[in-house]
Amino acid sequence: MAEFDMEANNFIEQIINEDLASGKVSAIQTRFPPEPNGYLHIGHAKSMFVNFGTALKYGGKCNLFFDDTNPSKEKTEFVDAIRADIRWLGYEWARECYASDFFDTIYEYALRLIREGKAFVCDLSAEEIKNTRGTLTEPGKESPYRNRTIEENLKLFTEMKEGKYKDGEKCLRAKIDMASPNVNMRDPVIYRILHATHHRTGDKWCIYPMYDYAHPICDYLQGVTHSLCTLEFEDHRPLYDWVGIQLGFSPKPRQIEFARLNITNTVMSKRYLKKLVEEGFVHGWDDPRMPTLTGLRSRGIPAAAVRDFCSRIGIAKANSECEYSYFEACVREYLNAHAQRAMAVLSPVKLTITDYEGEEELDFDINQTDENAGTRKIRFTRNLYIESTDFSLDPPPKYFRLKKGGYVRLKNAYIIKCEDVVTDKDGNVTEILCTHVPESRSGNDTSGIKVKGVIHWVNADDAVDVTLKQYESLLKDAEYAGQDFGERMNPESEKIISAKAEPYIASVEEGTPFQLMRTGYYKKCTENGKTCLSEIVSLKDSFNKK
Ligand code: ATP
Ligand code: MG
User: Fold this and answer.
1) DSSP string of 419-441?
2) Most buried in the list 8, 244, 317, 487, measured by CB within 10 Å?
3) Gap between the Cα atoms of 505 and 486, Å rounded
């Protein structure tokens, strides 16, 4: 018994429930259909969430379908990258197939359409076809080649396949209706001549089916029940259905369109992302600032946070734009719950606790939001570094960080009091001299002193020098659309800072995410043998960022 009484969470599930209830389908099959002409981006994550997620919900299957009908732009490099990115996001496909797997059948079906008088070979050029297609208000003009005999069409199409004609010299068009209100139905081209080597079929073919014709056939041959795609294909649905009806597909796959994901301050089209890479605006497809999945992964964004984001933005029929900050909030929320804490100081100033002798190992909360996370030991001595921005010689009112004569708590350590400072000849503070309250140790504070400020620190003698990388969005503003990338690029989207960090950070596995206290979420990596902390996402109320 199919579980069609499941609650529908969106309009696609509503349709599926109806199709299950009416007995139109009994098991759900979807497909994720990337074209292997670039790397997947976060928009594709939404498409995967919809396609894989829907199949999962109904105990159905989702195939990975490579739409490789455009040989001049497709490469095996992209196929491999797409596979890796899907797995990274946490999805597994039932079957991997390619439009090119079906080229023989697609060709046979074209012969069938010709034999039934539903397709003809046309000698008009692409330009002429475009010019005779009509407009939204005017019908198109029938091709003078529309009434060729079936025999002539069969002969010419076979010759097209055999390589007798040059690119663009002829094409195969469906014979539908030049007066249709839908321009896509005005005798659309279904096969074109293209003498190009295909990354899988080599030189076997010099004619290639057009997407609108091939896609319904590939869906049907894979057993797809619901072909979920983005809104720009809505006007193509009549053609999708026409192909299925003419070829007698039963059950006929059903195309359902949903809104694309658009995010502010970033580019979400493979074509433009490619431009960024090729013109050197970024270091590569996996640059941490790129909205590609490989970029998000090198940024250190957890796949679970991306899935969570996709589930929260929902699946709707109407296009809309999502704020980049909403994506960041999802990432932050995930990391807040899952990332361990550590301390690093970005603009170090020396702090000496003059009345503290020796050293101790203090308990440091690994993640205070997770009661099972526990603690680890950190070394504490009299010689520390704190952020120079956590001390003020001339504090404004309500300044809760360190000032002369003021108290502050050192995170997971003691309450200290600033007694004096050492300055250089220009008046810059070079050392802060403090005393500590011995009975105020965190976890065992009997001092009775209440302080408002808690600041982070590192122990000076074993702190490690690390390179910190901070990022801002790649594009200055979403409103520059249409302008040159050079003008839209944010020149300061990558910032490099040197910092002092706990030695612990150097000892953990590559890729470990941290919340650097009061700074942001960072991923540990090693570059040229040096420990590096690369920003995943900033903290909302960070002191270090304006
Ligand atoms: P691009 O325009 O970036 O090249 P595309 O649509 O050409 O993207 P495809 O490889 O054809 O990329 O896309 C595979 C699937 O992912 C398609 O079904 C497409 O509709 C979907 N998809 C692409 N971009 C988005 C997006 N921003 N939001 C949701 N789905 C998307
Ligand atoms: Mg596309």
Assistant:
1) EEEEE-TTS-EEEEEEEE-GGG-
2) 244
3) 37
**Centroid of ligand 1 to alpha carbon of 228 (angstroms):** 11
d(C-alpha 338, C-alpha 185), whole Å: 52
Residue 213 CA to residue 188 CA, distance in Å, equals: 9
Closest to 86 (Cα-Cα) out of 290, 271, 306: 306
Q: Residues 6 or more apart from 479 whose CB is under 8 A from it?
A: none
pLDDT of residue 279: 87
Task: At 254, list the tokens.
Answer: 């059903």
Q: Say which amino acid occupies 211.
A: Y
Beta strands in 102-225 (DSSP E): 119-122, 171-174, 189-193, 207-209
Kindly give the distance from the C-alpha atom of residue 269 to the centroid of ligand 1, in angstroms, as a whole number: 8
Mean pLDDT value of segment 252-270: 89
- Do the beta carbons of residue 36 and residue 79 sit within 8 Å? yes
Query: Is 260 one of the catalytic residues?
Result: yes
- Nearest C-alpha to atom 2 of ligand 1 is from which residue? 269
Pocket lined around ligand 1, Cβ cut-off 6 Å: 33-35, 43-44, 46-47, 229-230, 260-261, 268-271
Q: How far apart are CA 86 and CA 27, in angstroms?
A: 23
Rounded to an integer, what distance in angstroms lies between the CA atom of residue 343 and that of residue 70? 51
In a mutational test of the pocket of ligand 1, which residue from 230, 285, 293 has the highest number of ligand atoms less than 8 Å from its CB?
A: 230
Three-state DSSP class for 189?
strand
Centroid of ligand 1 to alpha carbon of 34 (angstroms)? 7
35 in active site: yes
| 94 φ, ψ (degrees, to nearest 5) | -75, -50
The yes-or-no answer on residue 387 being catalytic is no
Pocket residue to mutate for ligand 1, from 39, 44, 66, 227, most atoms within 8 A of Cβ? 44
Indicate the pairing of strand 454-455 with strand 407-410.
parallel
Q: Which of 274, 350, 364 is nearest to 77 (CA)?
A: 274
End-to-end CA distance of the chain: 58
CA of 173 to the centre of ligand 1 (A): 26
For residue 232, what are its two tokens? 């720009």
Tokens of 240: 């999708």
- pLDDT tens, position by position, 187-230: 999 999 999 999 999 999 999 999 999 999 999 999 999 999 99
At 542 the pLDDT is: 35
Phi, psi (deg, nearest 5) at residue 307: -65, -40
Check: CB of residue 186 under 8 Å from CB of residue 173.
no
